[in-house]
Protein 1
Amino acid sequence: MKAFGFLSFGHYGDVAGSVTRTAGDMLHQSIELAEGADEIGVNGAYVRVHHWARQAASPMPLLSAMAARTRRIEVGTGVIDMRYENPFQFAEEAAALDWIADGRIALGVSRGSPETALRGYETFGFHDAEDPERGGVLAREKFDLFLEVIDGARVAPGDPRMVGAGRYLAIEPQSPTLRDHIWWGAGSRATAEETGRKGLNLMSSTLLTEATGQPFHELQREQIDLFRAAYRDAGHTGSPRVSVSRSVFPLVSDQDRAYFGLRSEENHDQIGVIDGLRSTFGKTYAAEPDVLISQLQQDEAVMAADTLMLTIPNQLGPEYNLHVLQAFAEHVAPALGWKPNTEGPVQGDPV
């Protein structure tokens, strides 16, 4: 692990105990949290994207505001549901964001997670006749087109009266660094290998759609190794980034123990069913800092990735979440190999 960031699900609701009652609260608090995290030295500020729910849904305005109000921190998503996106509009917005942020972005994209709406992407106007139940084919076809157009493909026939006969046009703006900042959110080993073959970065999911009896961190480490091998075997020569997500809470105050002390007794993975697939979910880490250091050093996936995303309880507000990030930065992260954002952009490992 070289870097860590926070991953916010962007929950909001008028419920007891929440200081994030409205969508406006969530958006303004997310920006405030990114600003505070930037000053602490945290490397990344990432948001989940969920439609049809009281959660963060339209990331580009939020990430643009985060980028404009910070200096060093990377802003990104984990993940954008490609079933809902127009590839051309998404390409324009992503390129603009890359320019605004001076390259400080990490856009995680995927087929998306289960949602409250029944095939909600169809209501957005996107349909997939081949795979109507899961939308996987639709997401991948649209993502491949997105990659083509951010690479400069000329796909729109130009008006000959304006650009000359026979000319085709590319989307604008174009950002030469954008492709380096695209991640695919993979929930299986096969998807991780495909991500490597495409030369993208890997955002390993908070769950794996496999349940072999192995601990989650071992399954995820195998996924990372397969990704890097596929990247290398495809002839790519860069240093791809890899991130994993964990719920980690250093218990350094009575308030921490009141909120998360019982979680320290739930020291095990969970097995469940997602989209009909038996899946493995990672455990929550909540302990005194010295115990956390030992536990995370034994987490093979955390130590193999360059970036750890800490899932945060955003409805507890920026002040408490900055306390969690500060405690992790001060008491835990240095022992894991962390370098603060003052030391420059995060680099992946050469394959």
Note: The chain has one domain: 3-81+177-343.
Protein 2
Amino acid sequence: MSRTQANRPSGVEAGSGPDAVLRALADPQRRRMLQLVRSHELAAGQIATHFDITQQAVSQHLRLLQRAGLLSERREGARRLYSLRPESLEPVRTVLAELWPDALMRLKHVVEQGKRQKQEERMTR
């Protein structure tokens, strides 16, 4: 194992391709961290208060999410503020769309049909 591989957190390759993103999303704690920072940035300590794991474990998860391209980090003095990079999910969307085009089209059709029905109901009232 190379020195670079030995220093890398287990479970996610360096880089931000769909494989790294999917591996990062596989952990429920990391998904919860992303939910916490999806609409506004939070400091690592604020994120840690939502979990029953050590600060070190939270930091390790945050580094892994950042390495996968899912988080951006901004320093403010000694604090590190994290926020979701929604564009990093695009490669995963592309992969899923390639694997599941018919299901996505059916879902789109159902949603559009539901919108039409609600509009018709409003018009008949």
Note: The helical segments are 3-7, 18-25, 28-36, 44-48, 55-67, 90-99, 101-124.
Protein 3
Amino acid sequence: MAQEIKSVIDRSRDTILADALGVAALVVMLFVGLALPGLI
């Protein structure tokens, strides 16, 4: 099982990085969107 997980991570390292950047961008947009009404 652990070997399978390691091989999946090795094969899709670029995709995982792109997904992590996308998640980070969504989190930033969420916090900006929630803070925006307080600034106006």
Note: The helical segments are 2-11, 13-39.
